[in-house]
Design goal:
The strands form four sheets. A six-stranded mixed β-sheet has the order 6-7-5-4-9-8. It has a three-stranded antiparallel β-sheet with strand order 1-3-2, covered by helices on one side. By secondary structure, it is α+β, with helices and mostly antiparallel strands. Helix 6 packs across helix 8 and helix 13 crosses helix 14. It folds into three domains: about 110 residues, no CATH class; about 70 residues, no CATH class; about 280 residues, Fido-like domain (Fic-like fold). It is built from 19 helices and 13 strands. Strand 8 and strand 9 form a beta hairpin.
């Protein structure tokens, strides 16, 4: 059986064999010196599938360079290669741009079939070369993309990794004739490290790093997606009638109870009530009891729950203060301090410690552009949960921030009962991993609509309603039963 790709040969016998197969219709020509036994697939598909072996045969010893070395693939069906001469070659489905330049060095990397690919230091220098193309694909990436690449290297490998890259570039610059590009690269590196002026930078990500406030660009993209979804159509707003002191206390109790149960701090309702209302601390679980008390102290305090962040700094301070109140009995969780060790849940890796402050600051910039309270509530809850800025207690803080937005605006607060835990987590995951905002928005709206149906004047009445709704069940035991609609007196639609 013939291989899919066959290359021309200087061997007379092999050459005659190829001609025989061509005449018999068992081979066809793809391009100069390249044939295929696949008589069905389009030439473009065959070249793309076998691109690097084809290039290795046509241009032995060639070096994938410039933007192709950084991006690792053709861009706009164009690939850049350093070779002994300059030429534009059209293959089926792809343009190969041969650029005259030095052959592979000892630092460059071996690739398919005897090809090489520029090492990172060489590729960075190459991408700082002038590019005069105006109507076709440029051989270099944009300056912003290059800065983002350097910032990512600094984030992942640290200062030592970036300095090592600079040292390799210094070693290569003279050998490759790239002495003019070396000072440009050194200037960008100094700016990112804070040892040189930042006016050479243009990328927001690189500028934030130079200013000491690096952020997670992937999370910023998520926040922007959520913002767009929240602004796309008006959300229902459930007005909360003025609650009596008893109603406020019962509402706050169930919020604190469910918010802790969701995080694994599990008590029976009566036991939790005794902890919160009568300060009966179980001797075998004093720390867990104080988690519920700390949460209750915040959510039952109207003055505290009406505090809104007016600036990015105020947001950071508010988060830390509320976290300190919840986790006051857990010194090992560093109450009120942002994490110093990366954390994760399942396959989700949250924002790394060095990026926490900058990412929250970027989140605030988007948050302040939302007008309606429920929009802001959903956004700030997701942002805090997605950054996960603390060692523990992140979910509780996120839900407190959400309900503070609603309470301050006189709206019904959101309850996430035990039975609704999986709905809550799956909706967050849909946004976090797949950028699907609708499940997150709909989940919060449904939870708020459920909370609006509760009668809170009497504790036992409220508890009985929650039981009938399966609120205390585990997620695999039942589903939340939400009455067909909230009380009309509590339902009002915000104008867009």
């Amino acid at each position: 059986m013939l291989p899919e790709i066959i290359f021309a040969s200087k061997d007379p016998n092999q050459s005659r064999g190829i001609q025989k197969e061509l005449k018999a219709g068992r081979l066809r020509k793809l391009c100069q010196r390249v044939y295929t036994s696949n008589l069905i697939a389009p030439p473009e598909t065959l070249v793309t599938r076998n691109l690097y072996p084809i290039l290795a045969s046509l241009y032995p010893g060639a070096l994938l360079s410039h933007r192709s070395a950084l991006e690792g693939r053709p861009v706009e069906k164009t690939l850049f290669i350093t070779y002994p001469y300059t030429k534009k070659v059209h293959l089926p489905g792809i343009v190969v741009r041969l650029l005259e330049g030095p052959a592979a060095t000892a630092l460059d990397l071996p690739f398919v079939g005897g090809l090489h690919i520029s090492c990172e230091a060489r590729a960075l220098l190459e991408n700082l070369q002038p590019s005069r193309q105006r109507t076709t694909v440029r051989k270099t990436v944009s300056r912003e993309a290059l800065e983002q690449r350097l910032e990512s290297i600094l984030h992942v490998r640290g200062e030592d990794g970036l300095n090592k890259l600079r040292d390799e570039a210094q070693q290569l610059a003279r050998e490759l004739g790239l002495e003019r590009e070396l000072p440009l690269l050194e200037g960008l590196i100094r700016a990112l490290l804070g040892t040189g002026p930042a006016d050479t930078l243009s990328s927001p990500q690189a500028l934030a790093r130079a200013a000491g406030r690096p952020y997670d660009p992937a999370r910023l993209e998520l926040f922007t997606t959520l913002y767009a979804s929240l602004r796309s159509e008006p959300l229902p707003s459930l007005i909360e009638d003025r609650l009596s002191p008893g109603e406020l206390q019962h509402n706050a109790f169930f919020e604190a109870y469910f918010s802790n149960f969701i995080e694994g701090t599990e008590f029976e309702v009566e036991e939790a009530r005794a902890i919160v209302m009568d300060q009966v601390i179980p001797t075998h679980r004093p720390v867990d009891a104080h988690d519920i008390i700390g949460t209750f102290r915040i959510v039952s305090n109207e003055q505290e729950m009406c505090r809104m962040p007016g600036s990015a700094d105020a947001l950071l301070e508010l988060l830390c203060n509320r976290h300190a109140m919840i986790m006051s009995a857990r010194p090992d969780k560093r109450p009120g301090l942002f994490k110093e060790v990366a954390n994760k849940a399942g396959s989700t890796h949250f924002v790394t410690p060095v990026l926490v402050r900058g990412t929250l600051e970027r989140a605030f910039e988007i948050y302040q552009a939302l007008e309606q309270p429920l929009e802001r509530a959903i956004f700030i809850m997701f942002a805090v949960a997605e950054v996960h800025p603390f060692d523990d207690g992140n979910g509780r803080v996120a839900r407190i921030m959400m309900n503070a937005e609603l309470i301050q605006a006189g709206l019904v607060r959101v309850l996430i009962p035990t039975v609704y835990r999986e709905n809550y987590l799956l909706a967050l995951r849909a946004m976090s991993q797949n950028s699907r905002a609708a499940p997150c928005i709909n989940m919060i709206c449904e939870a708020q609509r459920f909370a609006a149906t509760l009668e809170l004047a009497n504790f036992e009445v409220a508890r009985a309603m929650l039981e009938r709704a399966n609120a205390f069940c585990l997620p695999d035991e039942a589903r939340l039963v939400v009455p067909p609609g909230a009380s009309p007196s509590k339902t009002k639609l915000h104008s867009p």
